[in-house]
Amino acid sequence: MIVASCSLTLSDLTGHTKKMNFFNVGKYFTLVDMPGYGYRAPQDFVEMVEVYLQERPNLKRTFLLVDGVVGLQKTDHIGIEMLEEFGIPYVLVLTKIDRASKGVLLKNVLEIQEFVKEKTQACFPQLFLVSSLKYSGVHLLRCFIAHVTGNLPVVEGN
User: Fold this and answer.
1) What per-residue confidence (pLDDT) applies to 115?
2) Could you say which of 2, 99, 111, 143 is the most buried, measured as most Cβ atoms within 10 Å of its Cβ?
3) Is the distance from CB of 84 to CB of 51 less than 8 angstroms?
4) Beta carbons of 122 and 157 less than 8 angstroms apart
5) Mean of the pLDDT values across residues 119-143?
6) Which one-letter DSSP state was computed for residue 144?
7) How far is CA 30 from CA 53, 58, 59, 89, 152, in A?
8) What is the pTM of this model?
């Protein structure tokens, strides 16, 4: 889970992050890499993450990372339920899009879009698709993060 703070949180399901890691992005905002919430979640996950999410008045957005190869899993639904319960605005980011076949990726995108439309209130309606290997979609995600942290205004067209 990634949180933007001027605090952003990122939650990853891979389970490699065990503690919250804070990254200052210049003087503009802080990116917080948070532990995943799945079966590999650290023992103190609830105390660490829930308290942080509920008590951060400068929290701008949480980015929930979803594996593009498998789509939404039970553990993703747990994270989504927590964010919905707390009323925390969040964005779903579909990762590893380069590893999924086009058919699987399309199926997962459509299922997630339907889920967001029908079952969520705090989720940003746009799904971000990214690849860390080919950097596909990363620029758009970075622009969105800059925007939600107040560092990139929307320019009106003619």
Assistant:
1) 97
2) 2
3) no
4) no
5) 94
6) H
7) 14, 10, 10, 17, 15
8) 0.84
